[in-house]
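JOB MANIFEST
job_type = single_chain_structure
chain_count = 1
residues = 427
[input]
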Amino acid sequence: MPAAPAPVLLTDPEVAALHRRALTAVVVSQVLGGAGLAARVTVGALLAQDLLGGDAVAGLPAALTTLGSAGAAYGVGRLSQRSGRRVGLGTGFAVGAAGGAGVVVAAVVASPVLLFASLLLYGAGTATNLQARYAGTDLAPPQGRATAASTALVATTFGAVAGPASVDLLGRAAAAVGIPALAGPFALSAAAYALAGLALVVMLRPDPLLVAREQAQLRSSQDDGGGGAASGELRGVHRSGVAVGATVMVLTQVAMVAIMTMTPVHMRLHHGLGAIGVVIALHISAMFLPSLVTGRLVDRWGRVPVAMASAGTLLAAGVVAALAPAESFALLALALVLLGLGWNFGLISGTALIIDATDVHSRARVQGSTDVLVALAGATGGALSGVVVAGAGFAVLALAGGALALLLVPVVALHRRSASAGAVPAP
């Protein structure tokens, strides 16, 4: 067989062209994968209520899904580090699709055990959809990393909004073929995750992480006069930046998941499934649609100011949700929009901090480990949300979630004070 061609150092325009190609593949997968997010958010808690009964168990689907996403985040990150984004992300979406199909079967046979096992697998789709944003940043210039990540996130909006908005239609279609109405959105999720994984496997060529790693090694070899040894900075991980970025994403995730999970349960006595779906669709729109603007703000104004804005927005969301009467569609919709926007600020600023603090030789592994913490935080918020509402009410949960977000202020303030200038590693 002919020998493989020797790697060559690409010019900046060539790298930019590959970056645009990778970002296009990620955008397509995010549009498809976004539709897979609808089921857990909109009807997961309601399905658990129907199978198990009681508000205290309504948070279990969110907890199990996010717990499953924690394991998947670790696995996808390690697999991506070893074999590239195509393999890691494609595998994660396939597992998520299997989980969505399993939930449908569990609803048909009324099996709580199968439901719980399937929700764990379903969480892999959630984690993979979130980690796909990193694939859009592997070849991005340092000053455009947040914008690249936000481009991937905003693409999620199209599928993520269409899913909850069509929950009534999906329910009727499921009931027409003998499937419980609440399982309909999970059937959509299974198909959406499968198509998202297929899109990445087919379109994400060449693999952006492998290209970025190859280019970094070639630049290092050139700088070292052909020795090939990477510098300490190239292989470094700035632990302070990773810790702060992870903290920002963890706190915003806990606050968002806790309030979001119990809002459909809070609304159920006064609103139909269609109204609940619209509120969740607005919430998801606010989670992803502002991303292009947020990314540019993070790149232009800095990571810390946007993280501070996340804390204030999440606090406002908690206060509005706590004060809103259960029958007030408008106020609950406003609270969930603010909740999604605050999460968006925190996720993109935290993501940028993580990318800045790592290099191509450690990036996927660290990103996966960080998303494990984010997923576990979401699992905790989801599991406790039902217990808090059952014991103290929705208003207490909403205020607690908003107050928790205020912990971001001292964390990012200390980071700003201690951070040294120019601590961004080479891409």
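[summary]
Confidence is low (pLDDT under 50) at residues 226-236, 420-427.
DSSP finds 17 helices and no strands in the chain.
exit_status = 0
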